[in-house]
Structures are given as structure tokens and as C-alpha cells.
Amino acid sequence: MKITTKDFKKYIKSEPSQFLKKKIKNLNYENLSQKEEKKYILKIVKTIFEQKIEKSGKSYKEKWNSGWGQNYKEFKKTKKLGSLIPKYFFKTNISRIDNRLIRVKSKNFDYKVLNLITSYIFEKYFKKEKNIIEFGCGTGHNIINLRNINKTANIYGLDWSHYSQKILDIISKKDHNIKGYFFDYFKPSLPNIKKINVGDNFSCFTVASLEQIGKNFKRFIKFLKKENPKLIVNIEPINELLSEDKLLDYLSNKYCEKRNYLTGYHKHLKELERKKIIKIIEEKKSYFGSCYINGYSIVVWKFL
Known about the structure:
By secondary structure, the protein is α/β, with parallel strands linked by helices. 41% of the residues lie in helices and 18% in strands.
């Protein structure tokens, strides 16, 4: 079996562009037998309810620094963009589509699926933007994908790992309009943003990075309000967009709770919208994810 343009339309709830149709390839997988699926579901349940799992947050910074350090050393040596793919994409060959587990048969399957989702967002919202910021940019792989869609924008990658900035320093030698800066979600610092000198004329996005701050997102939202971006896109685990009456969605939410991932963010955005502080432009579950989590829900919003 393989993911097709029909699947993409079904799960993203949008007709893929010609650009996206060309990217929907080499995404082969097979369904698990009932016995196999039960085995992996039991593994997920035991992980959530019986095992001790490291929690995200401030204390996890060195783990991320170490991970991006591996990518930096490989990229510095090879200069190949494949070296920027985060190592967590290679941990297992079990993924999910909708509410079933699958076994992937293509190399970099999970990464390619995420690349499709970000491509959908970048083409729809960022194709003509002049200044774009990614908060929590990690290895910069999303920025490289964005550059393939928007050839001229000033793109700024912000992250709390100094290896992230080293990676972007290498990239900026060939593309002077890509730059990296330090940024900490837990202490969003205005001077670092002001260095960028984009004023109010910028849009921004996060991809599976905002998840790391758990319930501590209000300071970041206040920071954004002050900086007043044109548009904010979050591709993150958004528990409220999953269905609690479906087993894998339920377990995804429980896994997020166990890892101390982003909690209450969407609910808070809806409250801000009710108060006419923001407007939510698009919100949807992606239906794609890893073994443990449906992590790529989409929320697009702006301040009024």
C-alpha cells in the first residue's frame, strides 16, 4: 500500500496542489495484522501507564543540544541536507494513519509525511511572505523545505541550542537570507527578535517544538502579541483536536500528558478568539503520526 493524493486530500481535508502531488511518492506501508496491532497497542499502554518516561521542559535542553550536535557534526562533514533529518525519525518503523497503526516500508517515511504537511502550510500561507520566523527550528530542516517554496524571503531560525545556530551559520554561507538566533520559549527575549529587524512585517511558525513547553505557553503568546506577527502557524500535538472516543487518539493524548507536552494551548486560543483578541483561520487534525503520538495537528491564527 502507499499514500496517494487521494489519501492526502482525505486526511488533510484539502485538494493537493500540483507541487504537492509531485511530492506524494515513495510512501509505502503495510497494515498490521490484528495480532501485531494488539501487540503494539499493548506496548503503548504499558509505556504510558507502567513505565517512567522523561518529561519535556527546561531540564530537557541538554538532550536536544546533544541531538542537534549529532546533526551538526554530520552536516558539517557531509554538507548533505539528509544530515539535517532529526534522529528521532529513525527510532521505529511503526507509524499511524488515521486511527490505525502501520508498518512503514519506505525510507524516511515519517519525515516525508511531515515534509508534505509543512509543504502544504508553506505553499498556502508563506509563499509570498517577505520575513518568516521559525521558533524552535532545531536542525533547520523545515527552513530548507520552506526555501524550496519561497525563494526570496528572509528566513530566521530561532532555537535554544547553540548547535542549531551553528547549522544555520553553515547554511547562511550559501543563502545569506537565512540566519539563526538564540531563543528560549521559557524566557522569550525581545532583544533577540529585535536583532532581526523585521518590525511588524513578519509571519511565524512552530513545528513540534512548542510541544516542549507543556502548560507554560502564555508567556510566549504575550510575547507574540507584543511583537504582532501577521500570521502564526502551529503544527503541534493539539489534544483538543483529537477524538477521545477513538483508541489511538485517546492514547496519543495520554502519552502527551505523560511526557508533559503542550496542554491547554488550543483551549486558550479559543478563549482569546471568544474575546476577539485573535482569529483562528484554520484548525485540523492531520491524521498522520508516529507510533506513540498524533503530533502534527494544525492551527493557523492571527491577532486582531
